[in-house]
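Input set for joint prediction.
Command: fold jointly, output tokens.
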Amino acid sequence: MRLIQLDSWDLAIAALFVGLLAGLSWRGRLQIARPLLVSTTRMVVQLALVGFVLEALFSFVSFPAVALMACVMLLAAGREVQARQRRRLRGWWGYGVGTFAMFSSAFTAMTFTLLALIQADPWYQPQYAIPLLGMLLGNTMTGVALTLERLTEGAWAQRDVIEARLMLGHSWQEALSTVRRESLRSGLIPTVNAMAAAGIVSLPGMMTGQILAGSPPSEAVKYQILIFLLIASGTGFGSFLANWMAARRLFDERGRLRLDRLRPIDRSAT
Amino acid sequence: MSKGLRVSELDCGPLQSVAFEIAARECVGLCGPSGSGKTRLLRAIADLDPNRGELTVDGVPREAMSGPDWRCRVGFVPAESRWWAESVSAHFAAQSEARKHLDALGLEQDVWERDPAVLSSGERQRLSLLRASDNSPAVLLLDEPTSNLDEGSTDRVERWLAELQRAGTALLWVSHLPEQLARVCNRVLRIESGTLVELHACD
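tokens >
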């Protein structure tokens, strides 16, 4: 099947609809027009740049180049997680918890998949490694960011209840259990919903892309299932880890609630 | 090994080098102007805020036990109680005998299975006393424990706490009512300009 090429005009026409949406938001004073335009511009510029980078990466297969690209993606994802929290942890914890959780989960899932399942030669073949990591990190980032946001906001809002439990001799795990549960649910619900709706309500982006590019649907489906399973485990483990680390940081060695370890609310966080 | 609470060289917020003792079966009152640091002192003793100082309960230093263990031995009843489960009973241990004390506190038996959110502030306040005593603490820190109660309920709570005191619990009782402190306490401490002064009655 021949791939139908898109030119710049096709993309510009599609962008008109986003422009129209931004105009409506501006008229309705919804305060979303500016973030919408900024994120649209960022998306176009970032994807255009990554297109060039991927073409260069694919042309010569080099482990240091793939590793460097993976590190840049991870650090950028860590920055995004940090920016999405209104009450983030002070100091390096605010950046480190999310980044470490994503590194541990997404990189482990990616490495296992490349080595044990896809078995490309060499295993770090950028054509597989980079898109796989991109999808994993993108979803893990959303899960970890939601988990951390709900955890810190929940701890702040429920501080009286948490302390009431501490006063009765409850451990920090018991005192924070409800908040932790809700935070994990928030982090995992987008992935659970996406899997439940896949194929009925929505056709996932990667599978759609493969089909548009001419792959047989049955092959595209197999890759999509693999990606969903990886995303679910990557997001799940990443959210668990971020949840535990941040929760632990909210209490000191005497099991006291330490909300002074959170920064004041950041209203610019998205 | 001395029974009760011993506090020495405790620094917390506006109060520096606080030192006092409460023996088992003793009730000590604490008064002082609003904002003088009464609640912060109770929070520090309950080890809810970072602080420096030497504290022992029944002769055992705070450092010798974990934070949760310390807070089991040193119970704290704040002025406003908080509840997290959908029934009162869910806030107590399964084998708790606290329910037997409902009558003594003037509470109906059916509050046990009710949602704390639908109870009056006075009922919640009495239940919070019951909840804090469920760990059999050696020391109970009481922050205005009758502030939401009418005269009859206040009388019942005072008698119930006196029973607890006779059974061996040491009480530190914060109140704005001098006549109440004079009635229930063996002695009274007052915060004046950041220091603790012992009174015979709170002026």
